[in-house]
Structure formats: C-alpha cells, structure tokens
Amino acid sequence: MQKYIFSRLVQSLCILFGVLFIVFFMMQVTGDPVSLLLSRHATPQEVEEMREELGYNRPILIQFTSFVSRAVVGDFGRSFRHKQPAMDLIIERLPATVELAVTALLISLILGIPLGLISGSNPGSFWDVISRGTGLLGQTIPNFWLALILILVFSVNLGWFPSFGRETWHFMGLTLPTRSVILPAFSLSLFTMGQLIRFTRSAVLEIRSEDYVRTAYSKGIPDRKVYIRHILRNASIPLISIVGVQFGYLLSGSIYIETIFSWPGLGNLLAESIGNRDFALVQAIAFFSSFVVVTLNLLTDIAYGLADPRIRYE
Amino acid sequence: MDNNSTGQQIPTGVAASTGLAIDQKQETGLWHFIKYTAHLLARDKAGTIGLIMFVIVVLSAILAPWISPHDPLKQNLRHAKKPPAWYEKGTMEYPLGTDNLGRDILSRIIYGSRVSLTVGFFGVLIASSLGIVIGLFSGYKGGKTDNIIMGGVNMILALPYLVFVVFIAAILGSSLLNVILIFGFTDIPIFVRITRGEVIKMRASGFVESAVSIGATGNRIIFSHLLPNLIGPIVTIATFEMSAMIFYEAGLGFLGLSVPPSVPSWGNMLAAGRKYLVIYPWIATFPGLAIVFTGLGMNLLGDWLRDVLDPRMRRVKK
After folding, report:
1. Which residue of A has its CA nearest to B294?
2. Are A140 and B295 spatial neighbours (Cβ–Cβ below 8 Å)?
3. What's domain A86-311's architecture?
C-alpha cells in the first residue's frame, strides 16, 4: 500500500510540475508577456521599466526557475488590478466556490443515485425513462443556459430565489449557506447528476446478474437487504472514483455559473481577471485549480486502493 | 447490386446474429454496408431521431444564405426587440423575434450553426488525425515510448479542462482559427488513449500475430489490419467530442473569448441576450435551444453509433 501511495504521489508531483511549465510558457507564446500586461498605449520606457521590475529581461530558463521556486511556496506575484498577492485573493474567494461545489455535489448525489438505482432495477419502466432522459439532458443542456432559464422562471417570475449574489447566515460563529446557493448549485449539478444516474444505472444492471446476487436471493434474503448489502455495496467502490473526479470538475468548472450569478468565487475571479488582463492572477488560478483537482484525484485513488485491494497490485 | 439477395441476407444476418452475416457484408461492398446500416438505423428510433436532428443542423449551416429570412448582420433599430411571432406584438416577418439591435434571431441562429459546426468538425479532424497517429505509434511500439506518451496524455487529462481552455483562449486572443486550434490540440489525448487501447487489445488478439507470421510489413499491419478496425470506436468518440466542442465553443463565446462579437454565433448571442434576460427573454432563449437541439441530436446519434459500429455490441443487443 505504501508503495502504491508513493508512486501515485510522485505522479501527482510530476503533473503539477507540468502545469507550472504550461502556465509559464503559455505566457511566452505570444511573444513579450509585458505586451499582454500593459495597455497598447504604454510608452517604450514604461515597457522597459516593467520588464526590469518583473525580471523579463533575464534569460528564460532563469525566469522559469525563479517562477517555479516562488510558485512552490504559493507566491504567484501580485494582481495588477487588486494590488494584492494573487494567492491571498484566491484564499479569500475559495469559501464561496467550496460552498457552491459541495451543495452541487450533494444535490447530484441525493437525486442521481436513487434515480439511477430505481432505473437500473426496473429497466424499461416509467422511472427508467425519466432517469435516462435526465441523464441525457444533463449531458446536453449547457449549464450557462440552464442558469439563465432558472433565473427567468424561479427568480423573475416566481420570486422564490435571489437572481444573483451570495448571502450567508452567521450562526454561532459559523458561516452557513442560504437559499441564494440553490439556483447556482442546481445549474452546476445537472451534468454531474446525469453522470451519476448513468453510472449507477449501468452498475446496478451489471451487478444484478452476478452469481452472488442470485445466491443471496436463493437463500431467501429479502429484496431490500440484497440491495443494501450486495448491490449498493459493490456499486459504491467504483462510485468513489466518479464522485472524486466530479467534485474536482465542480470546483474548477463553475466559471460560467459564478459569472451569471455574480457568485464571489474563484470562477468569477478568473473571468474577471481575464477581462482585466490580470495575467498574474490568471496564472495563479490556473495552477491552484489544477492543484486542487490533482490532489483530489490522488485522494480518490488512495481511497479506491483502500476499498479495493485489487487496484494496489496493478 | 442484386436487390433480392441483399434483401434476404440482411434480416437473416441480424436475426441469426452470426459472424457469417458480418463477413458477407464486407464482401458485398459499400452499397451493401449503407443499406445494412440504414436497416439497423430503422430499428433504432432514438438513433433515427438523432440523425435527423443532426442532418437538420448540417443542412441549415450549408443552406444558410438561401433559407435565412433576413441578413443576420443587418441592424434595424425600428424593429428592435420584437418578440416571437406567437406573442401579441410579434410578426411573421421575424418568426423568433429580433435582438436589441433589430437583427433577426432566426437568421442569426441559422448562420450560428456554421460557426459551431466548423469548430466542431475541424477541431475533431485535427484532434483525431494527430491522436490516431500518436496512439498507433504508442500502442504499436510499446515499452518506454508508450510510457512517456501515456504519461503526457494522463497529465493533460488530469488538468481542469475548462480552466485551461479559458486560460489559453484569453492569451491567444479570440478568432475562429484560434478556437479551432485550441480544441483541436487540447482534445488529442482523448483520441490517443482510445486508439492506443484498441491497438493493444488487437495486438493481443490473434490476427496481428498471424499477419506478422506470414511476413506482413509494419505499414501493412497498420493500414490494412489495425486502422480498419479502429474506425468504429473513433467515429463514436468523434461524435461525442464534436458535440462537446460545440458546447465549449458556446461557453467561450458566452465569456467573449470565442469568435469576435460581430460574428453571429450561438455563444455570442447568449452573451448578448443575457443583458436583456428579464425584459426580452427570447434573445437568450433561442440560441440556447439551438445548442441543446444540436447536442441532443449528436448524443443520440453517438449512442446509436456505439451500438452499431462495434460488432460485439451488436451481437449482444440482438
């Protein structure tokens, strides 16, 4: 097990180094990064000063080394717009994104798994049609459009939810979410929900025809117990990896939703900093999101290895 | 082609579900293949609907100048913000209404399909052709080469896709060519992985070994044995990837990072319509429906292709 964890850890570190490489060299692709940072009307003197200040007149390998050595300790320079270290801004915006992603994950788990379960155990039934339809729509409806339609129906026409912003509720020193999270989280969750329905359905269909399920039934174990002990339990092992990957997707994929709902999270910060040509911040967010996703993948793989011994020995 | 003989072969082939029917299909050529496919398609309602939806989108892109009721770029402030025809104030002149500058929404949606399909088609063309070459090489060589290539592929697949697409688009600047290149290159790993997987599976099965033992050259094995067997999985993945690219292109357009705002594209229309969501909701609603329509059609088509192009699946299903 230790060997397995160690090799996965080394892999993750390699990926993160690759990310630093991409993030750094993408900025060089267009030629002079300073031209991205300054406005078109900057004088040659201003350009020179900025190059000097940011160290862009040094050889490229030295620049890369210093970029990496600062990035390792979380220093991506200062945001030009906010005049603050980029990492501080990220930490400040993180709670909102986590709140949104966790809520979206909960919604998709609570709706997706039961729907997939019902659908898989009664193929061809009414609920199966509903589940498969939801799964298909989850894959085809763009979440940014769904968000607009939900705002139109539930905020503008019915007035049930606010159409933008994040409101929190402070209770005993805790910051708790309010109904303002429902619409953005639901729009974000539809794709994940569809994946979970599809996955649970096919897992249940497959496991239902296994020998041990037939044995369990033939021993006279009641339906409910067979589902909980045998079918759900076996489906839950691969489910871990789906949930891990999807959580990473929810944390890093909320750019549109956060923009539409003016949700003060990382996705919104990314869209904003692209609009402002604040590339130090864009680099920092790209690296931070990758870091979160890679770490989640690593944890998922470890959990998977713990749950299923066969994986470890591959 | 003898109509009678094909008419007999197809149903028995499908009903008997034997390998024999598939062999006969290869002997009788392309026309038979088309007929056979059409026959399988007729048995699958969802696939038929998907194909029809996709054909509608393709035709509207090709025939855009002839079927659009108006010039998609022509502004007419006197007719601005007209609601769709079924509203009280709507007219049949603008069936889906007009946007904030008085441009006809239906015409812009029809022209918008050109951007979406161009990005999807050329994006997939670049990604699949490079991906197949790299995947064949990686799977066929094996060993260290394979390890290095797959390391790179897994690295790219582990990254948050959306963040990187947005990041790269922001740096390269918005143009149709850039969008195609971004999707074309970032999607290579998907095709490498599927090609490599299939090649490794095929190498393990007998026919590659037999070809080697009768002295076939490397090129011959790749072109006459491996590539034809790859077509099924590749076409299936290509359909899903094309639909994903159309989706992501609209998303980039929504953030103002795809084609320039003057070009009618579904993403650009959504971005513009968002500002008027509360007062003139139709401006953002219809381009979104166009995206859903295209995505739904391609997904249904992809599901069907997956069942049909993989002979193993076909036998299980019938």
Report:
1. A140
2. yes
3. Orthogonal Bundle (1.10)
Name the residue among A11, A139, A152 with its Cβ closest to that of B277: A152
Q: What are the two backbone dihedrals, phi and then psi, of residue B179, each rounded to the nearest 5 degrees?
A: -60, -45
Distance between B36 CA and the closest CA of chain A, angstroms: 27
**What pTM does this model have?**
0.80
Query: Contact B308/B37 with Cβ under 8 angstroms?
Result: yes
pLDDT values of chain B reduced to their tens digit, one per residue, 318 residues: 344 443 334 443 344 444 444 444 444 567 777 777 777 777 777 888 888 888 998 988 888 788 777 777 777 777 767 777 677 776 777 777 777 777 878 888 888 888 889 999 999 999 999 999 999 888 888 788 888 888 888 888 878 888 888 888 888 877 888 889 999 998 899 999 888 888 888 877 777 778 878 877 777 777 777 777 788 888 888 988 998 899 888 888 888 888 887 788 888 888 888 888 777 888 888 888 899 999 899 888 888 887 777 655 444 433
Structure tokens at B318: 């019938």
Among B299, B18, B102, B213, CA closest to A142: B299
- Rounded Cα gap, residues B119 and B177, in angstroms: 8
Q: Are B23 and B49 in contact (CB under 8 A)?
A: no
CA atoms A136, A137, A142, A144: torsion sign: negative
Q: Where are the domains of chain B?
A: 10-43, 46-317
Q: What is the per-residue pLDDT for B129?
A: 92
Q: Are A275 and A255 in contact (CB under 8 A)?
A: no
The confidence score (pLDDT) of residue B29 equals 64
Token pair 């539409």: residue: A260
Chain B residues in contact with A156 (beta carbon < 8 A): 277-278
Q: Note the CATH architecture for domain B46-317.
A: Orthogonal Bundle (1.10)
3-state secondary structure of A169: strand
The 3-state DSSP class for residue B260 equals: coil
Euclidean distance between CA atoms B164 and B160, whole angstroms: 7
For residues B239, B243, B245 and B249, what is the CA-based torsion angle, rounded to 10 degrees? Answer: 150
Secondary structure of chain A: what % helix, strand, coil (to 5)? Answer: 75, 5, 20
Across the A/B interface, how many CB contacts are shorter than 8 Å? 111
Q: Is the distance from CB of B156 to CB of B214 less than 8 angstroms?
A: no
Q: Parse chain A into domains and list their residue ranges.
A: 2-72, 86-311
Question: Is A235 a residue whose pLDDT tops 50?
Answer: yes
CA distance A102 to A175: 14
Distance from the A161 Cα atom to the nearest Cα atom in chain B, whole angstroms: 15
- For residues B227 and B235, the answer to whether their CB atoms sit within 8 Å is no
Q: How far apart are the first and last CA of chain A?
A: 11
Residue A54 structure tokens: 């940011």
